[in-house]
Amino acid sequence: MMGVIGPEVVSDVDFDLRRLRYFVAVAEELHFGRAAARLHIAQPALSRQIRALEDALRTALFVRDRRTTVLTAAGEQLLADARDLLAAAEAAHRRVTAAAEAKPVLTVGFMPASWSPRRCECWSATGRTSASG
Amino acid sequence: MMGVIGPEVVSDVDFDLRRLRYFVAVAEELHFGRAAARLHIAQPALSRQIRALEDALRTALFVRDRRTTVLTAAGEQLLADARDLLAAAEAAHRRVTAAAEAKPVLTVGFMPASWSPRRCECWSATGRTSASG
DNA sequence: AGAAATTACGTCTTCCGTAAAAATA
DNA sequence: TATTTTTACGGAAGACGTAATTTCT
């Protein structure tokens, strides 16, 4: 499905964070059985979700070689990005929780590896004393 | 729900990208009706999803003042993070698609505003000619 | 009354787990 | 035949829309 119409044409990236977690598990294990066990779900459910992800991306992520499971180039790219995305989501969750408690937020230099910068300097320290109503 | 058990205790960040999009719409419009129209869904559905998001985060995101809708401090934080997360997801989608087509990927300096760096230098240029099997 | 958000309810899609099937060494 | 993944099927959870409800100006 596409984002639709008007000034708002979002590409509607259809990967769920849950699906991304599933994908990372399979990509790391390279074995649907072990990945399913690690995720505490049944194998068929995992297989379906991975296929659904591939369909949504319109891109093959694994090469199922009958006996072996290997990542495609797209799969390798997604593995890197998925890890970053999940980490970013978790970090966001922490920041939101912290903001709710009106605690000062300290952001330390951080950057996803997939952006592979040649050089990067980045830091910040934001102290906020509860200024909310 | 928590990630569960063993060496893998993921905090199970429960925000869906779809819910995040819904949230951004409301946060930008500060009006459930307009936001729902913009998202092409009904108002109640949107209201429920926002509440579900707040429940999942265990954090209030809006102050519903009957007549007005305002962001909480946590809401403001999430707005910034959500935009970055959605942008990152979209970028990841593009990179994955590009990788699938074995095109060289050019990453230009980019950094979410929410990390509010005092100073940041960051660039990279990765050329990859189809080396996949 | 009028406007804005939430709850109630019925429906439809999606997701999961168990069981069976396909495919390969 | 054993192992790994995928399809089939029935049940549970989630999400949406329409309609009714609450609350404040």
TrEMBL record, chains A, B:
Q: Which domain of life is it from?
A: Bacteria
What InterPro entries does this protein map onto? LysR_HTH_N, WH-like_DNA-bd_sf, WH_DNA-bd_sf
Domain HTH lysR-type, by residue range, is 15-72
Q: What is the protein name stated in its UniProt record?
A: Regulatory helix-turn-helix protein, lysR family
Q: Name one Pfam family in it.
A: HTH_1
Q: Which GO terms describe its molecular function?
A: DNA binding; DNA-binding transcription factor activity
Q: Name one GO cellular component term.
A: protein-DNA complex
Task: Give the protein family.
Answer: Belongs to the LysR transcriptional regulatory family.
Keywords in alphabetical order: DNA-binding, Transcription, Transcription regulation
